[in-house]
Structure formats: C-alpha cells, structure tokens
C-alpha cells in the first residue's frame, strides 16, 4: 500500500491535459453548466479515483458524466448512475451512506475504490479509441499502487471491460488469450506470477439506459457486488 503514491497520482490525473477534445469539452461544460446547477462551481477537470488506498475491491466504470463527476470532482457523484451504484454499495455494506451528492458529503467506501479507464467527461459519453488508449497509463499506474491489497475488480460495461484488459496486462497480471468477452456476471481469474490471482467480474453498466429498462436491476447489481466482495475477502450483507 502506497498512500502517498496514490495521492500524488490523483493530483497528476487531475492536472492532465493530454486530449484536446476532452479538455475543450469538459471546460466548456463547466462554463455553460446545466440550469439546475447554475450556482455550482464545476470541477471541470479529470476526475481521479475515489476510495481507500488499501482497497481489496476495485470498481471500473467508463468515464465521468458531464454534470456528475465533471461537476462534483468525484467518481459517480451527482448523477443518476451514481445514485444506483452507491445505493447498491450501501445495501451490501460497502459504503457508509446510500447517496453521493458532493465530494464533501462524508461518503466513505469500505475496502472499495472506484476508478475509470477515461478520467475526463467525453462528448455524448463516448471517448474515442485514441483517448481511451492515451488515458490507459493512469489506470496502469493506479493498479500498480493498489496491487498489494487488490483481489477483485468489477468492470461496468463492455467498453470498460475492453479498456481495462490491456491495463491489467500492462500492470503485470496474465490476461488469457483470446481475451475473455464481456458478460454480465462473467468471472475470469487473472494469474499473478508474484502473488494471488485477481478476480475480474463483469456487470452491466449502471447507466440510465440499463437501469430504466430493467436490463440491470438493483438485485442484479447487488449480487455481482456480493460475489466480488467474497472474492476480495470483504464481508458483504
């Protein structure tokens, strides 16, 4: 566990300006705002990971929402997707409260950290393959710092799955070939030549498209989180 290293990494991520299109978009959104948040000072920068540095379970999303993480400065905070995710984490005993509205709202995660393969809010929620690949080095570094305690990962959605697999390989875990396909509830163990395997689990993304249509129900999400917690050695209810 490297507390100072993770803190420094988070600061470096928040200062990144590597992708011109994403920089322009996130800053334009922060200037123009949404009417409902006119009195907010938007974060308008890359959003680093959130959670303890000794996390045993990592949740990997897609990218910050324009008026969620890009506004509040914290992963899945201030948007409908976050409402679903944090409620589920609270329900299974991995979060201190069921809501996430601001970076200073007192929310704590227990043994869990949340990150994403793309740290800037992208137009239409669709980063380009080049932007995804440019951002990968941050995830590789984060995985390296979490590696001493990390035992399981839940990846939300096919895009996150495709983006994360190369990062796990670069960080030193053995990714099977051919690469495993994404599936909700899917489970793959990534061998580690220097330690225990990392358990990788797939889950449909907590997007409104999935939650409003019933493709992902609260119980489906809770079940994946409980399974992942068990693989990580965490106690969930």
Report what the structure shows.
With about 240 residues, this protein is α/β, with parallel strands linked by helices. The protein has a single domain (about 5-230), classed as Uracil-DNA glycosylase-like domain (Uracil-DNA Glycosylase, subunit E), CATH 3.40.470.10. Helices cover about 40% and strands about 10% of the residues. A hairpin with a 2-residue loop joins strand 4 (about 185-190) and strand 5. Helix 1 (about 5-15) runs antiparallel to helix 5 (about 130-145) and helix 4 crosses helix 8 (about 220-230).
Helix and strand arrangement:
Blueprint: H1 3-14, H2 20-32, E1 57-60, H3 69-72, H4 80-91, E2 112-115, H5 129-146, E3 152-156, H6 158-170, E4 187-192, E5 195-203, H7 208-213, H8 218-232
Parallel strand pairs: 1-2, 1-3, 3-5
Antiparallel strand pairs: 4-5
Helix pairs in contact: 1-5, 4-8, 5-6
């Amino acid at each position: 566990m490297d507390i100072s290293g993770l803190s420094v990494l988070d600061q470096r991520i928040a200062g990144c300006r590597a992708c011109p299109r994403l920089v322009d978009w996130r800053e334009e959104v922060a200037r123009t705002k949404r009417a409902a948040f006119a009195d907010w000072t938007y974060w308008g920068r890359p959003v680093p990971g959130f959670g303890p540095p000794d996390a045993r379970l990592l949740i990997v999303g897609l990218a910050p929402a324009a008026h969620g993480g890009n506004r509040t400065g914290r992963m899945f905070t201030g948007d409908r997707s976050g409402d679903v995710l944090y409620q589920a984490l609270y329900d299974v005993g991995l979060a201190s409260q069921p809501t996430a509205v601001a970076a200073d709202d007192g929310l704590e995660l227990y043994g869990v950290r949340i990150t994403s393969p793309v740290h800037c809010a992208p137009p239409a929620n669709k980063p380009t393959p080049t932007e995804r690949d440019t951002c990968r080095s941050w995830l590789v570094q984060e995985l390296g710092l979490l590696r001493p305690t990390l035992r399981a990962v839940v990846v939300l959605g096919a895009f996150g799955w495709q983006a994360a697999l190369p990062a796990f390989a670069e960080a030193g875990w053995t990714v099977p070939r051919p690469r495993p396909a994404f599936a909700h509830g899917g489970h793959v163990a990534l061998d580690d030549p220097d330690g225990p395997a990392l358990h990788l689990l797939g889950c449909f993304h907590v997007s409104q498209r999935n939650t409003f249509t019933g493709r992902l129900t609260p119980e489906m999400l809770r079940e994946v989180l409980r399974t992942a917690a068990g693989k990580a050695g965490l106690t969930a209810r």
